[in-house]
Design a protein that fits this description.
Rossmann fold, 23 helices, alpha/beta, five-stranded parallel beta sheet, 13 strands
C-alpha cells in the first residue's frame, strides 16, 4: 500500500497539466489530489481504467488476480480491434473464493495461474492486475510477478491499480506508470529510423486507427507503437526509440507522454484525428516534429501534397451531405477529446452545436471549445436526464450524439441518436472517418422511422375520432334545445 500511495500521489502531481502549470511553486507541490467522495468511481474504478488502457495490447495474456466478478464486469468493455493476435480476448482470472481469501492462498494461486498460462499459451508477456480484494488482504503481486518472471523466463508485469484507489481516469494513468516501470525501454530495436513515431492514447475503436495509418505509411512514417490500440508487446517495449509522439487523449495518458519526453527526449504534441482540419493539422505537426528531430525537411512538402489531395477528395464527398445537414442542430453528450474535436468536425459541414458536455474534459479541452463556439452557454458540466429529455422533447436539437447509457433518453423523446463513444460500430477518424460520421448522422436524422413514431398511435387516433364525434353530437343536441327554447320564447311574445 505505501508503494501504491506514492504512485498515486506522483500521478496527481502532473506538471504537464494546465491546472498545475498555472499554480505557484508552493501550490504546485500539492499536485491535483483531492479527497475522494462517494460515487467518485461510478463511471468506472481504477482497476477498470487500467484494464481499458492495457487490454488492447493484443498478444499479451491479461490475468486478473481477484474474484470472478472483477473480470466479468470489465472484460472486453471497449470496441478496440486487432489486426492479428486474439489472446487479449481470452479471459484469465485467479477466481479467488472466500476460503482462499481467509486462508491466505491468493499468492500461491496467482503463481500457479501464471505457470498454467505460460505452458498453455506461451505469450510474450503476462500482465497481472490487482483488485480491491487482493490489495486489501495484502497479496504482494510485485513479488509474485518478479519470482514468476525469473522462474518462467518471460516478462510478468504487475499492474497495481485496485479499484478503491480512485476513478477510472486514475487507473488509466496507473496503467501508463506500469508500462513505464516494466515495459517501455526493456527491448532495444535494431531497425530505428528517423521517421519512427508513437501514437499515445489511441484505442483503435472500431478499427478507426486503420483509417489513419495508411496516410502515415504513404509519408514513409512508421508507427513504432500505438499505445494501446492494436499494440504488440515488443512494439511498446521498444517505444523509447521513437523520434516523436502524438498524444490523442491527454486525460488518460499525459503522464506517459511527458515522462517519455523526460527520459528519452521524445517530444510530443496533443492532436486529434477527428475532422478534416484536425487530421491535416495532426499530420503537419508530426512532420514538423520529425524534422526537428533530424528527418529530411522534404517530408514537409510531401505532407502538404498528401493533405491537399485527401482534403479535396473528402470535401467532394461531403458536398452531397451539406444541403441535407446544413443548419441541423446537434447535442453532444460526451467528454474528453471528443468534446472539442467532434465539435470542430461537425461545424466544418455546417452543423450547429447547441450543447456539448465537458464533464471529462481538461482545461485545455474547454478552452478549445470556447474558441470554437464563441459562447460558453453551450458548455455544460453535466445535465440531468430530465433536462436532456426536456431539451430533446422541445425540439431544441435534431439529433443527440452520446454514449449508450443515454440513448434511451433520446429514444423516449423520439429524437434521432448516434453512438459516438467506445461502443460504436463505425470508425470516425481521419478523412474517410469524417465522411462516415456525416453519413451516419444523415442516415439517423432522415430515417423515416422518426416520422412514424411521432405520429399518434392508431388507438390514440381512434380515441380522438370518438371524442370528436361525442363533442359533435353534444353540440348538435345543445343546438336543438336552444332552438326550441328560442322558438318558445318568440311564440310567447307573439301571443302578447
Amino acid at each position: 500500500m505505501p508503494l501504491l500511495n506514492a504512485k498515486v500521489q506522483d500521478v496527481f502531481d502532473e506538471p504537464a497539466c494546465e491546472k498545475n502549470r498555472s499554480k505557484d511553486s508552493k501550490a504546485r507541490k500539492n499536485g491535483c489530489s483531492k479527497p475522494l467522495i462517494p460515487g467518485a468511481a461510478a463511471g468506472g474504478c481504477a482497476f477498470d481504467g487500467a484494464k481499458i488502457v492495457l487490454q488492447p495490447i493484443t498478444d499479451v495474456a491479461h490475468l486478473i488476480h481477484g474474484p470472478l466478478g472483477c473480470e466479468g464486469n470489465s472484460w472486453d468493455n471497449r470496441g478496440s480491434a486487432s489486426s492479428g493476435p486474439t489472446l487479449w480476448r481470452t479471459s484469465f482470472t485467479t477466481d479467488l473464493t472466500e476460503t482462499e481469501v481467509v486462508m491466505g492462498h491468493g499468492e500461491r494461486k496467482l503463481f500457479k495461474a501464471i505457470r498454467e498460462i505460460k505452458e498453455a499459451y506461451a505469450p510474450p508477456a503476462i500482465f497481472v492486475y490487482s483488485t480491491c480484494v487482493t490489495a486489501l488482504i495484502g497479496d504482494d503481486i510485485e513479488a509474485v510477478c518478479k519470482r514468476a518472471a525469473e522462474k518462467f523466463g518471460l516478462p510478468v508485469v504487475p499492474v497495481n491499480a485496485p479499484g478503491f484507489a480512485g476513478s477510472k481516469n486514475l487507473g488509466n494513468k496507473l496503467a501508463g506508470e506500469a508500462l513505464l516501470d516494466h515495459v517501455i525501454g526493456s527491448v532495444e530495436p535494431n531497425d530505428v529510423t528517423a521517421y519512427d513515431i508513437n501514437i499515445i492514447g489511441e484505442f483503435n475503436l472500431s478499427g478507426e486507427f486503420w483509417l489513419v495509418k495508411p496516410l502515415l505509411d504513404r509519408l514513409g512514417i512508421r508507427v513504432r507503437a500505438c499505445i494501446p490500440g492494436d499494440a504488440r508487446y515488443l512494439d511498446i517495449a521498444s517505444a523509447h526509440r521513437a523520434k516523436a509522439s502524438m498524444l490523442v487523449c491527454s486525460t488518460a495518458l499525459i503522464n506517459l507522454a511527458r515522462k517519455m519526453e523526460e527520459l528519452w527526449d521524445i517530444p510530443f504534441f496533443e492532436g486529434s484525428f477527428y475532422g478534416i482540419t484536425d487530421t491535416s493539422e495532426a499530420l503537419r505537426q508530426i512532420a514538423k516534429l520529425l524534422v526537428m528531430q533530424g528527418a529530411d525537411p522534404e517530408i514537409l512538402e510531401r505532407t502538404e501534397a498528401l493533405i491537399a489531395e485527401e482534403e479535396a477528395i473528402a470535401w467532394m464527398k461531403l458536398a452531397a451531405y451539406r444541403p441535407r445537414l446544413e443548419g441541423k442542430r446537434v447535442l453532444l453528450n460526451t467528454g474528453g477529446v471528443k468534446s472539442w474535436s467532434v465539435v470542430h468536425a461537425l461545424m466544418e459541414v455546417g452543423i450547429e452545436i447547441v450543447g456539448t458536455s465537458v464533464k471529462k474534459s481538461t482545461p485545455e479541452d474547454k478552452e478549445r471549445i470556447k474558441q470554437l463556439l464563441k459562447d460558453e452557454k453551450h458548455l455544460f458540466e453535466s445535465m440531468a436526464p430530465r433536462e436532456l429529455y426536456n431539451m430533446l422533447a422541445d425540439g431544441k436539437a435534431d439529433i443527440m450524439l452520446s454514449g449508450g447509457r443515454t440513448q434511451f433518453i433520446a429514444l423516449k423523446a423520439k429524437t434521432p441518436w448516434l453512438d459516438i463513444n467506445q461502443e460504436r460500430h463505425h470508425p470516425y477518424a481521419g478523412y474517410d472517418g469524417m465522411v462516415e460520421l456525416v453519413r451516419q448522422i444523415d442516415l439517423a436524422i432522415h430515417n423515416p422511422i422518426w416520422m412514424e413514431v411521432r405520429e399518434p398511435a392508431p388507438w390514440e387516433c381512434q380515441h380522438a375520432v370518438e371524442e370528436e364525434l361525442t363533442n359533435t353530437k353534444s353540440e348538435n343536441e345543445t343546438g336543438y334545445v336552444l332552438q326550441n327554447f328560442v322558438g318558445a320564447v318568440a311564440g310567447s311574445f307573439g301571443k302578447r
